[in-house]
Design goal:
The complex is a heterodimer of chains A (about 550) and B (about 260). In chain A, helix 6 runs antiparallel to helix 7 (about 285-300), helix 6 packs antiparallel against helix 9 and helix 7 packs antiparallel against helix 8 (about 315-340). Chain A has a single domain (about 1-225, about 235-525), classed as Cytochrome c oxidase-like, subunit I domain (Cytochrome C Oxidase, Chain A), CATH 1.20.210.10. Chain A contains 15 helices and four strands. The two termini of chain A are about 45 Å apart. Chain A is an all-alpha fold and about 550 residues long. Chain B starts with 8 loop residues before the first helix and ends with a helix. The relative contact order of chain B is 0.13. Chain B is an all-alpha fold and about 260 residues long. The radius of gyration of chain B is 26 Å and the shape is elongated. Chain B has one domain: Four Helix Bundle (Hemerythrin (Met), subunit A) (Up-down Bundle), CATH 1.20.120. Chain B has helices spanning about 10, 55-90, 110-130, 135-145, 150-180, 190-220, 225-255; strands spanning about 90-95, 100. Chain B contains seven helices and two strands, in the order H-H-E-E-H-H-H-H-H. Chain B has a two-stranded antiparallel ribbon with strand order 1-2. The chains are: A mainly alpha (about 550), B mainly alpha (about 260). Chains A and B meet through helix 4, helix 5 and helix 6 of A and helix 1, helix 2 and helix 6 of B.
């Protein structure tokens, strides 16, 4: 039974993410080193060949997006914190929960195994566009590697769907007494919306993968045009369809997927900003509505990934409009974050700094969103580093800042030890500097026309050389910044190890938080005392000196007793 | 504070002895809170904290889980069916600038009508099994230790469902063979979709068969009434959903080609 407890499951998910993030970071650094010094030889391996570079791109994207940005915030912290935050002592289906966690771990192992099958990992990116993903003829890695990759993604999709079902049922059915929908912390709303999106999106991905596997092994043509040639060989399939169909199905999943990655972070940012500004979240109900609205609009915008893929231009306009509509709820969120801390006296603790960093990265990455949402601009920018900069700032870096914020914020709750604040602030300072220093210059190289997913950018003959020579210094800067960003995590690592060796401290609610997970008996597995919520979160006195938590009985309603 | 339509439980419940005298001019309220639903003092499950309100709570929790799971299954089939429509209307221009649409509507084997009827009957017997698990008289008998009337009846109906489910699946196999024997549709996208849709549905129904077997085993093994009710209830709702899904898919294959 111990392994089925939601906190054990949550820590299991976090462990999966830690392994994945280390691996993904190493892969990204290899890419950077190769881009800057194409002749550099990886020790014990040798030169990084173009196809190996593409395999690195594929595996970095897959590992980071699925096993870090989806697993850690949604499943990891979702399991660790969510039940306590709604005043429950368990998840709805503990066995299913544990099974999903183990399946996710197996999926990661299978995914990594793709490196070791003959001809190595697939080279078609995390989006696996056919026809190149539909045939082993398309290049090394598109044979066994691709099959292994698809198997891993199917396992991950099954696990995520099951985990989403579990999260939704828990939130719908296991809220404590008094925990009405309006009193739910915004983190729970983030998890709820993200879980809805998981249940909705991952099945579509699975359907697409089933069809792709049919194309690969049963000679159907669900995603292949008639008489398609790959590398001069005609594919032996029947039927006449279009790879665009895969793009539609994939991005119908893929776009909600990036919201699954970021919505929990948005909710946490709201709550952490309010907690350290000692203010109510500005426009609480509107924030609930915008969370749901971002989730809803997120399902309607997939076409903006396909502007240059041969999408009907009229459809492109429709998708451009729905995409720009997302700016409305997203801006409302930013305004609420700003209004919450505006002219307060925030305590600049480490979690607060990371939450502010999240806001900053969300704004910086979000501002390029409306640019890329316009088909005519996207046509120029789509295959350049500009897009890489956009999604790394708004999804990857903001997501990582959300995770750091969650770690610093909830570490005392889970381990009864507090991470060192000075070290945390150093970590924050170095990380935000490294993040901007790495990804901001990519906008410039992208605007200059530097293509993404190219294995080599310098030292090649031809007309592109002159263009790319102008961006080489910036590329070098980006590589050094990426190395710096990776090293900036060392203080964090040291901080965690150092704190793990300290004796536990008895401080129960070090951040003076108002949400249920900090209630004195909230984390006990079995307790005769049921948890009850008496009010919404974030109730502070006007002078910010005192607060009243969600679990504290209402003084005003009891005097009727006499 | 925002208005709430139903006051939350915590606001409704009063400490013992607290009789509110909110005289609003329309006479006094009766001294008891009618909203709790009566029963003897202290014996009302609604007065207990959430999570301890009796077996019904666990049952509805599982139902909600099954509902979300079925939502995921529905999305799976929506994706395939949209691909069906896209491919159906897809074409290309050949070397002579002629528009070519390869779609040749598959005339589906007529045994599918029979299979559909079998599946509808199996759903009916599944529903009888589910209802028999909640017959008040029988549940009470069983609770008192007077045999296991609910399980006995449910076992009968579920076995019939299981048999009919297997008949349906065998019928599908016959249909696949019949279609494969007709060379006419070989390699046509419409037959690819026929196989994809029917195989995907059969795979999902196979999960239902597994659930039926699990429910039948549970009916014999499990001692708790609640566990048995949940097993049968969840299985039957899943079975119904697969039945309705089949009706939609069958209509698509028969009339939508």
């Amino acid at each position: 039974m111990r392994v089925m407890h939601h906190r054990a499951v949550g820590l299991g998910y976090i462990a999966i993410s830690v392994v994945a993030v280390l691996l993904g970071t190493v892969l990204s650094l290899l890419m950077r080193l190769h881009l800057s010094w194409p002749a550099w030889k990886l020790p014990l391996h040798g030169l990084i060949l173009p196809e190996e570079y593409l395999a690195l791109v594929t595996m970095h994207g897959t590992i980071m997006l699925f096993f870090v940005l989806t697993v850690a915030p949604q499943s990891g912290f979702g399991n660790l914190i969510l039940p306590a935050q709604i005043g429950s002592r368990k998840m709805a289906f503990p066995r299913l929960n544990a099974a999903s966690m183990y399946l996710t771990a197996v999926a990661l192992a299978v995914l990594v195994a793709a490196f070791f099958v003959p001809q190595g990992a697939p080279i078609s990116g995390w989006t696996a566009y056919p026809p190149l993903s539909a045939s082993p003829l398309a290049g090394p890695g598109q044979g066994d590697g691709m099959d292994v990759w698809l198997a891993a993604i199917v396992m991950f999709a099954v696990a995520s769907t099951a985990s989403g079902i579990n999260t939704l049922t828990t939130i719908v059915k296991l809220r404590a007494e008094g925990m009405t929908w309006e009193r739910l912390p915004l983190t729970v709303w983030g998890w709820f919306t993200a879980a809805l999106l998981s249940v909705l999106a991952f099945s579509v991905l699975m359907a697409a993968i089933v069809m792709l596997l049919c194309d690969r092994h049963l000679h159907t043509g669900f995603f292949l045009p008639a008489q398609d040639l790959i590398n001069g060989v005609m594919l032996g399939h029947t039927g006449d369809s279009s790879p665009l169909l895969w793009l539609h199905l994939f991005w119908f999943f893929g776009h909600p997927e990036v919201y699954i990655a970021i919505l929990p972070g948005m909710g946490l940012t709201s709550m952490v900003l309010a907690n350290f500004a000692r203010r109510k979240v500005f426009a609480y109900r509107l924030m609930i509505a915008t969370t749901l609205l971002i989730g809803f609009l997120g399902i309607l915008v997939w076409g903006h990934h396909m502007f240059v893929a041969g999408l009907n231009p009229f459809a492109g306009s429709a998708f451009a409009i729905s995409t720009m509509a997302i700016a409305l709820p997203a801006s409302a969120k930013v305004l609420s974050w700003l209004a919450t801390v505006w002219r307060s006296r925030p305590q600049l603790t480490t979690p607060m700094l990371f939450a502010l960093g999240f806001v900053s990265l969300f704004v910086a990455g979000g501002l390029t969103g409306p640019i890329l949402a316009q088909p005519i601009l996207d046509e120029y920018l789509h295959n350049t580093f500009f897009v890489v900069a956009h999604f790394h700032l708004i999804m990857a870096m903001a997501g990582i800042f959300g995770l750091c914020c969650a770690t610093y914020y909830w570490f005392p709750l889970i381990f009864r030890r507090q991470l060192s604040e000075p070290l945390g602030k150093v970590h924050f300072g170095l990380t935000i500097f490294g993040a901007y220093s790495t990804f901001l210059p990519m906008h410039l190289t992208g605007l200059a026309g530097e293509p993404r997913q190219y294995a080599q950018l310098n030292g090649i003959a031809g007309p592109g050389t002159a263009l790319l020579q102008t961006t080489t210094p910036l590329q070098l800067h980006i590589t050094f910044s990426a190395l710096f960003l990776a090293c900036a995590q060392l203080p964090f690592l040291y901080n965690v190890l150092r704190t793990a060796l300290l004796p536990p401290t008895a401080v129960e609610n070090p951040w003076n938080a108002t949400t249920m997970e900090w209630a004195p008996n909230a984390l006990e597995e079995t307790s005769p005392e049921p948890l009850m919520a008496y009010r919404g979160p974030c109730q502070y006195s006007d002078d910010a000196a005192t607060f009243i938590a969600q679990w504290q009985p209402d003084e005003a309603s009891t005097p009727h007793l006499e | 504070m925002a208005p709430t339509i139903t006051p939350p439980e915590i606001d409704r419940r009063r400490p013992p002895g607290d009789i509110r005298e909110n005289d609003n001019g329309s006479g006094r309220r009766p001294p008891t809170d009618k909203r709790t639903g009566g029963n003897g003092e202290g014996d009302n499950w609604n007065d207990r904290p959430q999570g301890r309100r009796g077996p019904r709570e666990r049952l509805s929790q599982v139902r909600v889980g099954v509902f979300f799971g079925l939502f995921a299954v529905l999305m799976f089939f929506i994706a395939i069916v949209s691909a069906f429509f896209v491919t159906k209307s897809n074409g290309h221009f050949d070397a002579y600038s002629r528009y070519i649409n390869d779609w040749l509507p598959t005339a589906i084997p007529s045994i599918l009508w029979l299979n559909t009827a079998v599946l509808i009957v199996s759903s009916a017997s599944a529903e009888l099994a589910r209802r028999s698990m909640f017959q008040e008289q029988d549940v009470m008998d069983e609770w008192l230790g007077l045999g296991r009337p609910t399980s006995r009846r449910a076992t009968l109906w579920l076995s019939i469902t299981l048999a009919l489910g297997i008949v349906f699946l065998s019928g599908q196999v016959v249909a696949w063979k019949q279609l494969a024997a007709q060379q006419r549709y070989r390699g046509n996208p419409s037959s690819h979709f026929f196989y994809l849709i029917t195989y995907a549905h059969a795979a999902h129904l196979l999960i239902g068969v597994g659930a039926l077997v699990a429910a039948l085993v549970g009916l014999h093994r499990s001692r708790r009434m609640l566990t048995r009710q949940i097993l049968v209830d969840a299985t039957v709702w899943y079975w119904h959903a697969m039945g309705v899904l089949w009706l939609l898919l069958f209509a698509l294959l028969e009339f939508g080609q």
